[in-house]
Every structure is written in C-alpha cells, then in structure tokens.
C-alpha cells in the first residue's frame, strides 16, 4: 500500500523567530508518528518499533524554545526513516530492485541493520515482511528526510547570520545496555560526541561537560558515541558553525521496557534545561 504523505507533519520547529542565543537544537529520533500504511509492511507491534526511539527527549527540552533557543524535533518515527544518517546509507539487500548503477554503501550501521531505513528493530527482529521497492525509499527521502534537513539548514544559517557563530546541539538518548557493554560497568550518564575534537573547540565541549558534572552527572566524551551524520555534516569550524552530540542514558528517566517515565524524569528535565541554557549563555558571551 502506498504511503500518503499529503497531510504528514514532518517536524515541529519552535523558537526560531525569537533567537537570543547562538544555539540550535536538533532532536531527530523522538518522533512517534507512524504512517498507517506502514503497519501493512511489518509484523512488529508499535511498541517493538519504538524500541530505538529517543523517548521524551523532545519533551524534556521543550522549554528551551521559549527561552530563545531554536529547536527542531522530528515527528516521524526513526523506524520509518532515520534522518541522522546520510541518504546513501542504504542496505541494498533490503530492496527487490536496487539499481545496478547505484553505489552500495557499506558501513557498520548498514551492516547491523540501522542505516537510513532500519532493517531490524532494537531487539534484532526483522521489520519488513518482504523486500522494499527502491522508489518507496526515494519517496521517504523526498517527503521526509529532505524536508527535515532543509529546515535544519535554514535554522543553522539564520543563527549563524544573527550571531556570527552557531552551535548545533544534536540531542539523543542511549540505551543503558550499550553503556555497560562499551565501558565494562563504568557508569555513564551522559555522552558528549565531538568527533574526537573535530566538530567543535575543546573548550566548548569541556564547558558543557563541566556544567553537567556540577549537577552530579558522569560524563564521557565520544564513548560510546562520537557523533553521527548531523554532527559530521553540519560542522563548519571555519565559519564558526560547530556541532556537538548529546546522549542521555535512558535508564536515568524511563523504564526502557515499558517506555514509562520514572519519578526522576522531572529532575532530569530540569537539570538538562538549566545546563543547556547556561551553556548557551556562555556561547553568547564568548562567541567562540
């Protein structure tokens, strides 16, 4: 069944008309909307499909747009299309008609099933009943992926033009399991990814790390994540456009199985909001 894109609201943008700080927030993986026709393509339940969702990150950061920080959050589930991937990160084995003249893009995300179009769920179950058509994915790119990135690019450019610099903070949550696997039991509350010092000056990431540490959070840089497509694609240090990926341990604020909020949710939300606002004020004053 063909997907209906006509009345689909791809993203929620806010705060971009009243900028007070040189910061843009992107939240690409908190979307909860599934096109109804999508469920005809899969045997998985909605709850299973939401397993890789960054639950509540958009809600936790919602107040920042009211305080002068431009925010863009994705409405469509990443199980349908992942906008934090390059549009060529496609697994050719997922298609019945992958063009012979197209590059086969091999990387770890594609091989593990988490490219632009996810092949498997968070518990490694196949998402699709059968192979996809190449045109179906091109439609998703045109109607969702490019729409989101067009708006994000506009917001970054507007911020850069107004302040002479811009920090794009790409916000996510991470499963607690990956923290244990990657660090052999070492506690990780927050990961900050700067592509190993390539996407923003060290003093910027250090500043944000210190603000979070002052509130009692254990912060690591580039472990288990150093940054993905957004972090890499949008950073332009020569133009003072920097990027930083923020990952919050889901176990801090939610039950990862039931997807329900914990009692700690409000505190985590407040701490993140205050820390990001403090960070934005430092950026506005120093204009790195």
Descriptive notes:
The protein is an alpha/beta fold. The protein contains eight helices and seven strands, in the order E-E-H-H-E-H-H-E-H-E-H-E-H-E-H. It has a seven-stranded mixed beta sheet with strand order 1-3-2-4-7-5-6, with helices on both faces. Helix 6 (202-213) packs antiparallel against helix 8. The longest helix has 30 residues, at 134-163.
Notable characteristics:
288 residues; alpha/beta; seven-stranded mixed sheet; 8 helices
Topology, pairings included?
Layout: E1 11-14, E2 23-27, H1 46-49, H2 57-60, E3 70-74, H3 108-112, H4 134-163, E4 166-174, H5 176-183, E5 190-193, H6 202-213, E6 219-221, H7 229-234, E7 241-249, H8 265-286
Parallel strand pairs: 2-3, 2-4, 4-7, 5-6
Antiparallel strand pairs: 1-3, 5-7
Helix pairs in contact: 6-8
